[in-house]
Design goal:
alpha+beta; Nuclear Transport Factor 2, Chain: A; single chain; 184 residues; 4 strands
Length: 184
């Protein structure tokens, strides 16, 4: 039996050695590596041009529209008179969206409107300059420099302030609306 077991070992060793190993020649491995690298570079280029480069996705008209919406919305938010405070603040809300609309609605109803009526507070804002800080197809940030004049029954002499605000916008149904208003 010992002769039989030796023969079985030799047969299994011989059959393993006889099975052809599939080896990819070095030339094909190099070609495959170059193709994968070229495809990766190509994909990265396409993603850069279509996803990352927002300057390609937006044009001068979109930038101009966002800056104009931020400027007009800022003036609407910061300007109201005692006699027309209801309509002024309601008009300001048409420039807003999202959580900021909810916040401003509460703030204007509980603080601004009573102050305008009871103490005859009047404010008038004007935008000195505005420029886009970040622009994407559906969102934008615009830096707005504002001068604001305020008067009231207690302080009839005009009080002037200058400030800057980062206005965040979202495009909703084709319109740029203010989604955040952060003083800087």
């Amino acid at each position: 039996m010992s002769g039989d077991s030796a023969t079985l070992d030799e047969v299994s060793t011989d059959s393993a050695a006889a099975a052809p190993k599939r080896r990819v020649p070095a030339r094909w491995r190099l070609i495959l590596t170059v193709l994968v690298a070229a495809a990766s570079v190509g994909l990265a280029g396409v993603l850069y041009l279509t996803q990352y480069r927002t300057d390609v996705q937006t044009d001068e008209a979109a930038t101009s529209a966002a800056v104009r919406a931020a400027s007009e919305g800022t003036v609407a938010l910061l300007s109201y008179k005692p006699g027309s405070a209801d309509t002024d603040l309601a008009a300001a809300k048409t420039h807003l969206t999202g959580e900021f609309l909810n916040y401003y609605g509460t703030f204007s109803d509980e603080i601004l409107l009573p102050a305008a009526k009871e103490r005859a507070v009047s404010t008038e804002a004007s935008v000195v300059r505005a420029a886009d800080a970040e622009i994407h197809p559906d969102t934008a940030k615009v830096l707005v420099f504002v001068n604001q004049t305020t008067t009231s029954r207690e302080r009839p002499d005009a009080s002037q302030t200058a400030s800057s605000v980062m206005v965040s916008l979202m495009k909703v149904d084709g319109r740029w609306l203010i989604s955040a208003f952060d003083p800087i």
